[in-house]
Design brief:
The chain has 3 helices and 7 strands; from the N terminus they run H-E-E-E-E-H-E-E-E-H. By secondary structure, it is an alpha+beta fold.
Length: about 180
């Protein structure tokens, strides 16, 4: 056997089975991933002071209620697009939401006037929820990650609300109402 034939034989016997095994192994891992966007159902965000989580959003129904500056409860419907939901799903994955503990509370007794957030991602086979107190003081990296996720959720919902209110201002004939 010449040198070239030995290299070809080596590639066929070692490299090809290794590549096939990697494709099989990672294919099964991706297929059985616990949180896939194809199985995504909804996101729920609830927040408020203490145990009073009066501000709520549910992406499945689009129901959004919040307390405005006058402490009156405003109820509206805000639908997120599939792209926005995919963005929020990927952001949660990027920040490690699936590995967060279910309750993030401070070491000292709960302060009733600190903001609390409840975030839930629901999928066909699983769901993950986290209750977060803004006074959480144990792991700063974890606090930064959950705070960043809350900001992204709030910003996306706010942008969708602004977009839907602008569309409501435009009549069906495409012309704006005169002021």
């Amino acid at each position: 056997m010449d040198d070239r034939s030995k290299k070809i034989f080596l590639a066929i016997c070692i490299i090809v089975p290794f590549v096939l095994y990697c494709v099989y192994y990672y294919g099964v891992m991706i297929k059985n991933a616990p949180y896939k966007f194809s199985e995504f159902k909804s996101i729920q965000l609830k927040y408020g002071l203490g145990n009073n989580l009066v501000n709520q959003y549910d992406s499945q129904s689009g129901a959004y209620q919040y307390a405005d500056e006058n402490d009156s409860l405003v109820k509206t419907t805000v639908k997120l697009s599939k792209d926005e939901l995919l963005y929020l799903h990927r952001k949660a994955s990027e920040l490690g939401f699936w590995n967060f503990p279910e309750v993030l509370s401070p070491t000292k007794p709960l302060h009733q006037h600190s903001p609390h957030y409840y975030i839930e991602y629901s999928y066909v086979r699983k769901h993950k929820h986290v209750l977060f107190d803004m006074d959480y003081d144990k792991d700063p990296k974890l606090k930064n990650a959950i705070t960043q996720l809350i900001k992204e959720l709030s910003k996306t919902i706010s942008d969708a609300q602004d977009r839907s209110s602008k569309q409501a201002d435009i009549p069906k004939n495409g012309r704006r109402k005169p002021n």
